[in-house]
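Re: Re: token formats

Sure, here are both.
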Amino acid sequence: GSGPTDDRKQAYGHAFVVLAGASATLAGVPGGEELLADALAAFERFWEEPVGLPREEFDRAWSTPEDYRGLNATMHALEALLAASEALTGEAAALQRDRARRIAHRVAGWAHRHEGRLPEHHDASWRPLLEHHADRPDDPFRPYGATVGHGLEWSRLLLATRALVGDPDDTLIEAGRVLFGRAVADGWAVDGADGFVYTTDWSGRPVVRA
């Protein structure tokens, strides 16, 4: 995501509210269903057809979307949609499952094309921007390169999507394995001590080692 601001509407933050509403609904917390309905109504503005992925940001008036598209917000959107699909029933649940499936398969394709190092940053047409922020690789919200921890998160989410939504073949399982294996190979203990580095370049060399 691009980080919290006072004057932008962000998919990243809205996804967390959807997740909160779904969790509250599943737990039977009073007001959970209302929160989920309101959060999904707001999140609907981010959903972009026919691409089947969420936009990143709008201005405060909801009139102008940002040209940037990002996988961080998309990752949290998938998590939220899976939770919403479990909290809802009927056509509403089916809609969220379908959107989760579309996100998961799009990311699975990127995982295979980029050997498990997911491109985090994209333009408005969802073309990967592999050199985005190469001049400031430790940008706190949009760092350069592949984010190792996100490879692990996406692996889990692709498998969760397959378990909940189903899959006619093993596309999501295979992509999950690719992402997990790459994250561990590139990121684990590469500096000689246990722990994952934060980001790598597109050949797997550590960039931000924290």
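Second one below.
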Amino acid sequence: MTTYAPLVAVLLCCISAATASPAEAAANYIQIENAKPGTSEWTLTKPGYSTGVIEGYASLTSVNRGGQIRLFVNTSEPTYTMDVFRMGHYGGLGGRR
């Protein structure tokens, strides 16, 4: 007589994982993201207080996965570089590049 109990258990496990609620799936994405290594390099060490150095802001403070945020920059410099950080816990470091 052949037993199918282990196969049934594996199939049930796969079905329950595939039918996770959107909230559970989102929690998993957040947990995966928050487990990544962080950095404290996002902290401003020499903020530009004088007018006209470089100014900027983002169109949104938060966006869903796959969404877009527009970045607006004002400067008289012909070129500049920009580092973007995602704010979060990241092991207590506060952000990730």
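The longest strand covers residues 55-58. Strands lie at 55-58, 71-74, 86-87, 95-96.
- S.
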